């Protein structure tokens, strides 16, 4: 019975790499294509989560916990980004009555 568990393997690292690449690409496309500020911030969060997952996968693969420490700091950065981003969106909405970033051209000098 011990040899059965020794032969079992987890998800291969290549699957994590491809999955994170797809998630990161979706986030980049969301930032470049969409004009809604909330969707742009969600796309940035999607990119950060793809990086977090890949760091955690490499950390487990190499038996080195330093990648998981970086994940913790990226999560703290993402929480601060959400708080600041939402406050900016609220202020833009108060001034322009829209969250479309094309409307922000009115704020130029």
UniProtKB/TrEMBL annotation:
Locations listed in the record: Cell membrane; Membrane
Transmembrane portions of the chain: 15-33, 38-58, 70-93
Highest taxon above the source species: Bacteria
Catalytic activity, as annotated: a quinone + NADH + 5 H(+)(in) = a quinol + NAD(+) + 4 H(+)(out)
Coiled-coil stretches: none
Enzyme superclass (EC): translocase
GO molecular function, one term: NADH dehydrogenase (quinone) (non-electrogenic) activity
Membrane topology: Multi-pass membrane protein
E.C. number(s) listed in UniProt: 7.1.1.-
Pfam families membership: Oxidored_q2
InterPro entries: NADH_UbQ_OxRdtase_chain4L/K (IPR001133), NUOK/Mnh_C1-like (IPR039428)
UniProt keyword list: Cell membrane, Membrane, NAD, Oxidoreductase, Quinone, Translocase, Transmembrane, Transmembrane helix, Transport
Function (record text): NDH-1 shuttles electrons from NADH, via FMN and iron-sulfur (Fe-S) centers, to quinones in the respiratory chain. The immediate electron acceptor for the enzyme in this species is believed to be a menaquinone. Couples the redox reaction to proton translocation (for every two electrons transferred, four hydrogen ions are translocated across the cytoplasmic membrane), and thus conserves the redox energy in a proton gradient.
Assembly and interaction partners: NDH-1 is composed of 14 different subunits. Subunits NuoA, H, J, K, L, M, N constitute the membrane sector of the complex.
Similarity section: Belongs to the complex I subunit 4L family.
PANTHER family: NADH DEHYDROGENASE SUBUNIT 4L-RELATED (PTHR11434:SF21), NADH-UBIQUINONE OXIDOREDUCTASE SUBUNIT ND4L (PTHR11434)
Database matches in NCBIfam families: PRK05715.1-2, PRK05715.1-3, PRK05715.1-5
Protein name: NADH-quinone oxidoreductase subunit K
């Amino acid at each position: 019975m011990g040899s059965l568990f020794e032969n079992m393997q987890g998800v291969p690292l290549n699957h994590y790499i491809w999955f994170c690449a797809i998630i990161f690409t979706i986030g980049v496309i969301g930032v470049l294509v969409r004009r809604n500020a909330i969707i742009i911030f969600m796309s940035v969060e999607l990119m950060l989560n793809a990086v977090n997952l890949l760091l955690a996968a490499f950390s487990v693969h190499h038996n080195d916990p330093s990648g998981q420490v970086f994940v913790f700091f990226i999560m703290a950065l993402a929480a601060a980004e959400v708080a600041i981003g939402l406050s900016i969106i609220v202020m833009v909405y108060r001034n322009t009555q829209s969250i479309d970033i094309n409307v922000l051209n009115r704020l130029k000098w």
